[in-house]
């Protein structure tokens, strides 16, 4: 047969050559008889060897019948087919590349063949084909990628090993740029990474590592946007190796692509945030996820708050077609209620599939932050009670960051976020509560949250019952007038916006409905708020709200809590000094506001008078105590007040006992407290203190020291103390009626139980 074929070649008799090949194919290789098929395969190989370099002209006719025999049920016949194809390819060399896809398809099947001899033969053929591809510069990568994308999803271990080996070969060829087509096969590679075979996992890990090195070397040619969602999916994989590898890729993508990754922020956060609460068993994943989270957060800039339709319309004339990021910005504009720009009313779906060009500076790409998606993800994580503490902290850090960087856009979501932020105050972790308070304080103080009407957002029960004079420092007006440009406004800035009063109302509602929260965390929350916001505004607004509180028992408890914070917290040092002298109209206004609410609790009212040096009024109040119902709780509070008088906060009060002549009502008030107390340790403590009060005649001096005291009394002379006393009596009568009603209901309940 070889001699016959050589003669036909010498005669250039192509028709006879084709006739010989046809006979070998049809009558032998494709015969029903197995021995005929073996003979046909041997004949085709011999024919190819005889043709030599001319075999390239007849490759289609030579290869097709051999490949058909790859599917033969007889393993020996499959081996013969493999051997025949090896000889055909060895002779043809580079000429077989146009038929590479069919050869690869056949080889991928033989790679998973159960017969070891067939598998061994296919490996020899595979190596030969790899050598040909490596040394050639005519490989059709574009035509091969669809087949590779299809075969990469095989579940067979040998097929997977075969696929990975080819990817490694193609990756090593300098003239073949597989990186351009990485989005086509990246998902499949991550699937193979989860294979049960350690060897295959290692091979896949090496392949992915090589791709990542190439990405770092040539970021300008990488289609980051097309692979972002693939990474998001695998960052949530149950397999630790897949998750860690995908997270490492995500970290590099965010750092290399920069703001190109912003449109995928919601997906990235969905994948990254749960990883932040992993324990030490997944420490590596947790650390990489943390870097991803921090890097992504840095991509959000103040300019994102100004990237509206007007800005997009300015960039349109300079561009021939929209980029994927601009297309992604349109749904956000629709959700915010802004009119879409002319000519861009519909989402261009085709633009999303366009390759993304990478500029030298990623920040120059016009990327619009998809804030709606991000907020939705953060909101879902806050509602999920099963997430870990570190995840909740990260969510709150994100919200705080967004309110700082993009306050105007974030306030569109405040009404939906507000309830869950308030509920988060009941969290078990102090760290979570601190971050939550930072977010709430930023909402309550940001100039972007000020409505045009100047009133807080009202939702029925949350509406302000009446005008309240809240002291707002002059700086607040300056910041408010600057609008969105007041981005440097921090939570500690003493400003108020429309949400401040709403926050105070809802916080008190929270304390009212969750008494345990008030008992365990109430003081902690209020003290932190006094650091984050203006303490005077907090106390002024809470006092005003409590003045209209219908639950008198809660009002009394809340006033007691506020009073304890006012008298003992280091955070309120300045506010105490402001109230101590009542020199300014603002301080006197604050005193009157606090006093009216403090009347819910008689002992706290007296302590407020002591703090503000209104000793005569304190004495008048104590005289009224004789008409009140003296309970164990009442005496306990008097006991605590005596203890407070001995604390450093009331040092000035104790020193004023030396000036007996000018402070007679102070001494009378203290004696009044002494008369209220039973023979207890507090009684002994106060009694010993009053025994130290000097004889006024011994304290006579030539100096007239009345100036300072008279000034104090004059400063507060415009306060109507008679009206305040009447208000105290009115409030206490309400409390008395409420106690009688509660006692009556309890008595009725007891009778029903007896019956």
Question: Can you tell me about this structure?
Answer:
The chain has 755 residues and is an all-alpha fold. It has helices at 2-10, 14-29, 34-51, 59-69, 75-92, 100-110, 116-135, 141-151, 157-172, 182-192, 198-217, 224-234, 240-257, 265-272, 283-298, 309-315, 324-335, 349-352, 371-383, 389-405, 407-410, 414-423, 430-445, 474-481, 498-513, 515-532, 535-547, 552-568, 573-581, 585-598, 602-611, 615-624, 632-645, 651-656, 664-676, 681-691, 706-715, 721-754. Among the domains are: 1-135, Alpha Horseshoe (Leucine-rich Repeat Variant), CATH 1.25.10.10; 371-449, Leucine-rich Repeat Variant; 601-695 and 718-754, no CATH class. The chain is built from 38 helices and no strands. Helix 14 runs antiparallel to helix 15, helix 20 packs parallel to helix 23 (430-445) and helix 35 packs antiparallel against helix 36. Residues 515-693 form the Vacuolar protein 14 C-terminal Fig4-binding domain. It comes from Acanthisitta chloris.
Main features:
755 residues; mainly alpha; Leucine-rich Repeat Variant; 38 helices; Vac14
Kindly state the percentage of residues in helix. Answer: 55-70%
What's the shape? rod-shaped
Q: Which regions contain 5 or more consecutive residues with pLDDT less than 50?
A: 309-365, 452-494, 702-715
Main sheet specs: none
Question: Mind telling me the C-alpha Rg?
Answer: 42 Å
CATH secondary-structure class of one domain: Mainly Alpha
By CATH's scheme, which homologous superfamily of one domain applies? Answer: Leucine-rich Repeat Variant
CATH architecture call of one domain: Alpha Horseshoe
End-to-end Cα distance, whole Å, is 117 Å
Please report the total strand number as a whole number.
0
The CATH topology assignment of one domain is Leucine-rich Repeat Variant
Mean pLDDT: 83
Name the beta content range.
under 5%
Structural class: mainly alpha
Oligomer: single chain
Number of helices: 38
Pfam family, one: Vac14_Fig4_bd
Protein name: Protein VAC14 homolog
Keywords: Endoplasmic reticulum, Endosome, Membrane, Microsome, Repeat
Organism: Acanthisitta chloris
């Amino acid at each position: 047969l070889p001699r016959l074929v050589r003669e036909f070649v010498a005669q250039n008799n192509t028709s006879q050559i084709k006739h010989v090949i046809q006979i070998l194919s049809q009558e032998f290789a494709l015969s029903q008889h197995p021995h005929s098929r073996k003979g046909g395969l041997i004949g085709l190989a011999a024919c190819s060897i005889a043709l030599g370099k001319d075999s390239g002209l007849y490759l289609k006719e030579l290869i097709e019948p051999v490949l058909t025999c790859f599917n033969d049920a007889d393993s020996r016949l499959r081996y013969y087919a493999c051997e025949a194809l090896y000889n055909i390819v060895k002779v043809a060399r580079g000429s077989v590349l146009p038929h590479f896809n069919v050869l690869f398809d056949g080889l991928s099947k033989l790679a998973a063949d159960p017969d070891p001899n067939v598998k061994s033969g296919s490996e020899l053929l595979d190596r030969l084909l790899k050598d040909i591809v490596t040394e050639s510069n005519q490989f059709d990568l574009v035509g091969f990628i669809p087949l590779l994308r299809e075969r990469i999803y095989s579940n067979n271990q040998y097929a997977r090993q075969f696929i990975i080996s080819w990817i490694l070969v193609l990756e090593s060829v300098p003239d073949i740029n597989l990186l351009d087509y990485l989005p086509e096969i990246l998902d499949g590679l991550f699937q193979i990474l989860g294979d049960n075979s350690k060897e295959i996992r290692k091979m896949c890990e090496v392949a992915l590592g090589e791709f990542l090195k190439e990405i770092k070397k040539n970021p300008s040619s990488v289609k980051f946007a097309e692979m972002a969602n693939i990474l998001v999916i695998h960052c949530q994989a149950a397999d630790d190796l897949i998750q860690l590898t995908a997270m490492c890729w995500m970290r590099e993508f965010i750092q290399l692509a920069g703001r190109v990754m912003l449109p995928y922020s919601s997906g990235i956060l969905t994948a990254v945030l749960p990883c932040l609460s992993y324990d030490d068993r997944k420490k590596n994943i947790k650390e990489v996820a943390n870097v991803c989270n921090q890097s992504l957060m840095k991509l959000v800039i103040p300019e994102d708050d100004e990237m509206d339709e007007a800005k997009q319309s300015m960039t349109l004339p300079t561009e021939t077609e929209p980029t994927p990021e601009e297309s992604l910005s349109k749904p956000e504009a629709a959700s915010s209620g802004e009119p879409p720009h002319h000519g861009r009313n519909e989402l261009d779906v085709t633009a999303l599939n366009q390759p993304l060009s990478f500029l030298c500076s990623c920040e120059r790409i016009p990327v619009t932050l998809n804030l709606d998606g991000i907020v939705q993800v953060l909101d879902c994580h806050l509602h999920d009670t099963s997430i870990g503490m570190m995840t909740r902290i990260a969510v709150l850090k994100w919200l705080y960051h967004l309110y700082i960087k993009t306050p105007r856009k974030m306030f569109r979501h405040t009404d939906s976020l507000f309830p869950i932020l308030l509920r988060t105050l009941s969290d078990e972790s102090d760290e979570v509560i601190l971050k939550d308070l930072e977010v709430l304080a930023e909402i309550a103080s940001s100039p972007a949250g000020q409505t045009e009407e100047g009133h807080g957002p009202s939702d029925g029960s949350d509406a302000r019952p009446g005008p309240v004079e809240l002291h707002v420092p002059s700086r607040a007006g300056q910041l408010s007038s600057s609008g969105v440009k007041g981005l440097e406004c921090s939570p500690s800035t003493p400003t108020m916006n429309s949400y401040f009063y709403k926050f105070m109302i809802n916080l008190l509602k929270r304390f009212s409905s969750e008494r345990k929260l008030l008992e365990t965390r109430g003081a902690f929350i209020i003290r932190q708020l006094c650091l984050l916001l203006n303490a005077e505004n907090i106390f002024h607004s809470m006092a005003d709200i409590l003045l209209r509180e219908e639950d008198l028992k809660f009002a009394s408890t809340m006033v007691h809590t506020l009073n304890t914070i006012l008298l003992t917290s280091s955070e309120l040092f300045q506010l105490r000094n402001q109230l101590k002298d009542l020199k300014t109209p603002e301080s006197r206004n604050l005193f009157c506001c606090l006093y009216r609410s403090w009347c819910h609790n008689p002992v706290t009212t007296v302590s407020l008078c002591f703090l503000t040096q209104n000793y005569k009024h304190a004495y008048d109040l104590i005289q009224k105590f004789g008409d009140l119902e003296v309970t164990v709780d009442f005496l306990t509070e008097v006991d605590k007040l005596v203890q407070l008088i001995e604390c450093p906060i009331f040092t000035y009060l104790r020193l004023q006992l030396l000036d007996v002549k000018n402070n007679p009502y102070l001494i009378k008030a203290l004696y009044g407290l002494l008369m209220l107390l039973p023979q207890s340790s507090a009684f002994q403590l106060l009694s010993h203190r009053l025994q130290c009060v000097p004889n006024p005649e011994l304290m006579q001096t030539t100096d007239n020291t009345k100036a300072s005291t008279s000034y104090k009394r004059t400063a507060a002379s415009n306060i109507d103390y008679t009206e305040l006393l009447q208000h105290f009596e009115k409030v206490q009568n309400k409390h008395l009626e409420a106690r009688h009603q509660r006692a009556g209901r309890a008595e009725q309940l007891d009778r029903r139980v007896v019956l």
